[in-house]
């Protein structure tokens, strides 16, 4: 089972993903993609840490997500990745201009082969106007392309608004 949960900032997407993981009855492995490179991001990371159960395994992986998923994959587990848009930012800001495309392809190829249940959390970035600035436009474009491709392989796609989930694809839980 692959689930993709999308939404804007503070839409309730992470809370939904965490609640779903808690209710699964499976061993949960939480993969965090954030990097606490400034004080504000460190506060955000700390906030998320406080919300997670202490018994979850937490792994930080800002770049090589597909490799990490392959490494930690196992039966009777659920891997929650939060979030893909921070991961995309990390990839796009790397010096290697091919890294983003290569890592996204690796992720798309590995997901269907995993034994774990997967929950992917990401910010929906395509609801606003076309942004000013090359890197911002590239971020929105590449995130949107990734979401579309993930939506095709996901069993369930959910969009969160104001704390309310809307099922776009798949059965209601």
From TrEMBL:
Matching SUPFAM superfamilies: P-loop containing nucleoside triphosphate hydrolases
Active site positions, chain numbering: 48 (gmp-histidine intermediate)
GO MF annotation terms: adenosylcobinamide kinase activity; ATP binding; cobinamide phosphate guanylyltransferase activity; GTP binding
CDD domains: CobU (cd00544)
InterPro entries: CobU/CobP (IPR003203), P-loop_NTPase (IPR027417)
EC number: 2.7.1.156, 2.7.7.62
Catalysed reactions, as listed in the record: adenosylcob(III)inamide + GTP = adenosylcob(III)inamide phosphate + GDP + H(+); adenosylcob(III)inamide phosphate + GTP + H(+) = adenosylcob(III)inamide-GDP + diphosphate; adenosylcob(III)inamide + ATP = adenosylcob(III)inamide phosphate + ADP + H(+)
Residues annotated to bind GTP: 7-14, 32-34, 49-52, 60, 82
Pathway: Cofactor biosynthesis; adenosylcobalamin biosynthesis; adenosylcobalamin from cob(II)yrinate a,c-diamide: step 6/7; Cofactor biosynthesis; adenosylcobalamin biosynthesis; adenosylcobalamin from cob(II)yrinate a,c-diamide: step 5/7
Domain of life: Bacteria
Keywords tagged on the record: ATP-binding, Cobalamin biosynthesis, GTP-binding, Kinase, Nucleotide-binding, Transferase
Entry similarity comment: Belongs to the CobU/CobP family.
PANTHER family: BIFUNCTIONAL ADENOSYLCOBALAMIN BIOSYNTHESIS PROTEIN COBU (PTHR34848:SF1), PTHR34848
Descriptive protein name: Bifunctional adenosylcobalamin biosynthesis protein
Originating organism: Acinetobacter stercoris
């Amino acid at each position: 089972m692959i689930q993709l949960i999308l939404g804007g900032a503070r839409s309730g997407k992470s809370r939904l993903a965490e609640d779903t993981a808690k209710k699964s009855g499976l061993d949960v492995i939480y993969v965090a993609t954030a990097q606490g490179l400034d004080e504000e991001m460190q506060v955000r990371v700390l906030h998320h840490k406080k919300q997670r159960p202490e018994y979850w395994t937490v792994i930080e992986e800002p770049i090589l997500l597909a490799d990490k998923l392959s490494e930690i994959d196992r039966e009777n587990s659920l891997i929650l990745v939060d979030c893909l848009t921070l991961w995309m930012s990390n990839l796009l800001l790397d010096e290697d201009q091919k890294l983003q495309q290569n890592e996204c392809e690796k992720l798309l190829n590995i997901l269907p082969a995993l034994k774990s249940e997967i929950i992917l959390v990401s910010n929906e970035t395509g609801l606003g106007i076309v942004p000013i600035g090359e890197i911002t436009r590239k971020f929105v474009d590449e995130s949107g392309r990734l979401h579309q491709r993930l939506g095709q392989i996901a069993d369930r796609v959910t969009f969160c608004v104001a704390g309310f989930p809307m099922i776009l694809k798949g059965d209601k839980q």
